[in-house]
Write a structure and sequence with these properties.
heterodimer; A: 497 residues; mainly alpha; two-stranded antiparallel sheet; disordered C terminus; B: mainly alpha
């Protein structure tokens, strides 16, 4: 165990990996801070460039972008009152109010320290929980894996937003897309229409870039770009360092919120947004010190939202690394990254590639610490970047998308496939069909189908073989609850988000 | 977007219906328990087709209910909608033309022209931005991706290839 950590530290601390960590974190912070770019878009844009990198460098880069995106979403929330990410809405409510009262630097300190504390807390939980869950999951056979992928796909209900039917349509479309290409078992061609481009199947990254990034730019193109002028005055971070007594005063919130964040992050379909709203709501409900300040600049509310927001990353990563289940489209991209480098995330990975898993633990730990430094020193840079012409910024993103799609296999056909997905994604979004379930299904579809077919082969074709073990029954029941629960109980707090 | 939804779900019904027929052609039974290549896509496409039909019916119903009660949109609202559609269509067209042009005129020239064209489509009118940004951005992109990461971008044909070779 100690050897593995030592090896992981020495690998992650290699110059190229440190550079990747810094670049990924900066890119993530930028993506999170700019309202036109989401964390998932930030991750998918650099995912295409990880093909040529070593697996460890690629994961360090992607983790930087992921954690940076979650952290960066609150910079514009506090200084401009514009949430960079949906999870930053409570931060806008409390952080921006504080900033308007002339406490911008103070709010930024609280946000940074609580974010990093939440992130580190969840990483510790992840380090402890991942091997335990993975060891338990080693007893899974094809039927259990099938049930696990069904549980993974059941997050559609959480990702669907308005209409669950539309979410399921998107999910089934993704499952269909995953079947395009040569069948892994029989070798038969499916939906290729005799084109060579589709023989190997639809590349995740090409589809993700089109559905997520380009379609987002097209949607943004409809609205004239607003330049974010008139933000609050920000004179520098060193002016108002919060006293340690502040964190002692709100110790219960500081402990409770990361726990909420980590648990919610681990739930399929939930994530940073639900985590920050839940923790914020809980802080408001149980506030002992100055409850009247909630909504008008309550430090406790800001602490709760930020620590839960970042803590969700460790929860999501625990489930991803131990079971191979992505709970959101951002973690689905990390699954794609594993597949790009010839690995299947899940319980076996801890046994076959412990260097990667422990490397990810260490990278998450160090990235959280690095983010404190980077976000603190680069705030001014992000503020200035917010004033860049959006038209040029969009053009740059479009070019990155083209490079990403082309660079995967140096194929012009992939660029056109990406364009087709961007048009599909645009119309899906316009008609209220969420793209996240499609991405998730595209990533999980292959595993779901193979597990089902293997399970049926083992049971001689009897569907009862799928529910022969208690683990399968529990997982399928969990999937059922995950689908049905949101129908009856929508989180009220999110209604206005 | 009610009319748009009807068209979208109509098109998705037709698409999934067509693909479903293709999936039926893939159905087959081999060894006991082997479900063949067709069953899984058949299930996914069948569910997609059913959901598309349900959503199409829902959209038609919503449109019928809303149509008599709906107020006529103001000329300003109509003009705004037209502007939005034009911007998106122009942006998408720019992007498509860019991708078509890349193999023929090479990555550098296509990118250099695409940046101001796309910015113009988005409504950018500041001359300094339109003049400086393409030079800077193209230089950065070529420097990072063609020189540093060495992605073998298309060089174009004929004289364009000669031009591209000057840079990468």
């Amino acid at each position: 165990m100690f050897d593995l950590y030592w090896q992981a530290f020495t690998t992650v601390l290699m110059p190229q990996n440190l550079l990747a960590m810094a670049l990924g974190s900066l890119w993530g912070l930028l993506a999170g801070a700019l309202p036109g770019i989401s964390t998932s878009m930030g991750v998918v844009l650099i995912l295409s460039f990880t093909y040529t990198l070593s697996p460890m460098t690629a994961f360090v880069l992607l983790i930087g972008a992921y954690l940076g995106g979650i952290t960066g979403g609150s910079i514009t929330s506090i200084l401009f009152g514009i949430p960079g990410e949906p999870s930053s809405v409570p931060t806008v409510i409390e952080g921006y109010s504080l900033a308007k009262q002339g406490k911008a630097a103070y709010a930024m300190w609280v946000y940074l320290l609580c974010s990093i504390f939440g992130g580190l807390f969840s990483v510790v939980v992840m380090i402890v929980a991942t091997p335990l869950i993975a060891n338990f999951a080693l007893r899974f056979g094809p039927a259990e894996y099938f049930a696990l992928t069904v549980l993974g796909l059941s997050v559609v209900s959480g990702l669907s937003g308005g209409s669950m039917l539309k979410g399921f349509l998107s999910c089934f479309f993704g499952l269909f897309l995953a079947t395009v290409g040569t069948d892994g078992i029989t070798g038969e061609e499916r939906f290729t229409f005799e084109t060579v481009t589709l023989l190997g199947g639809i590349n995740f990254v090409v589809a993700m870039v089109g559905l997520l990034a380009v379609s987002e730019i097209l949607i943004e193109a409809e609205e004239p770009f607003k330049e974010y002028k008139g933000g609050v005055e920000y004179r520098g971070l060193m002016r108002e360092l919060p006293p340690f007594s502040l964190f002692r005063k709100y110790w219960l919130t500081m402990i409770r919120s990361p726990i909420i964040g980590t648990i919610v992050g681990a739930l399929p379909g939930a994530g940073a947004t639900i985590a920050s709203f839940l923790a914020y709501g809980e802080a408001a409900r149980t506030a002992k010190h100055e409850p009247e300040k909630f909504g008008k600049g309550a430090v406790e509310g800001l602490m709760a939202a930020e620590s839960a927001n970042n803590a969700s990353t460790g929860g999501s990563m625990t489930v991803l690394l131990s079971l191979g289940l992505p709970g959101s489209n951002t973690t689905a991209m990390l699954v794609a990254a594993f597949m790009i480098h010839g690995m299947q995330p899940g319980p076996l990975l801890l046994a076959t590639r412990p260097d990667i898993i422990y490397g990810i633990f260490v990278a998450m730990l160090l990235t959280n610490l690095l983010l404190l430094v980077l976000a603190g020193t680069a705030i001014r840079l992000f503020l200035e970047l917010n004033r860049l012409p959006y038209s040029i910024f969009s053009a740059a993103i479009m070019i990155l998308c083209v490079i990403g799609a082309f660079g995967i296999s140096n194929s012009v056909d992939d660029m056109f496939l990406m364009f087709a997905f961007s048009i599909i994604g645009y119309f899906m979004r316009k008609c209220g069909v969420p793209v996240a379930p499609c991405i998730l299904a595209l990533v999980l579809g292959d595993l779901a189908e193979l597990s089902l077919r293997r399970a049926l082969l083992l049971s001689g074709g009897s569907p009862l073989g799928l529910v022969a073990s208690p683990i399968s029954i529990v997982l399928l029941a969990g999937a059922l609850v995950s689908i049905v629960y949101p129908i009856f109980k929508k989180p009220k707090m999110l209604a206005g988000a | 977007m009610k009319k748009g939804e009807i068209v979208f779900f109509g098109a998705s019904t037709a698409f999934f219906g067509f693909m479903l027929i293709q999936a039926i052609g893939l159905m087959g039974q081999g060894r006991p328990g082997e479900i063949g290549s067709g069953l899984w896509p058949f299930l996914a496409l069948g569910a997609s087709a059913v959901l598309s039909v349900v959503l199409l019916a829902g959209s038609i119903q919503k449109y019928r209910r809303a149509a008599p009660a709906a107020e006529m949109p103001t000329p300003e609202a109509l003009a705004e909608k037209r502007r939005q559609r034009l911007t998106v269509a122009l942006s998408a067209a720019c992007f498509l033309v860019y991708m078509i042009a890349v193999p023929w005129v090479g990555f550098i020239l296509a990118t250099f022209v695409f940046i101001p064209a796309f910015a113009l489509a988005l409504g950018e009118r500041r001359k300094t931005v339109l003049l400086i940004a393409p030079v800077l951005l193209t230089a950065i992109i070529v420097g990072v991706f063609a020189k540093f990461i060495t992605i073998p971008f298309p060089k174009g044909v004929g004289v364009f290839a000669e031009f591209s070779r000057l840079f990468y």
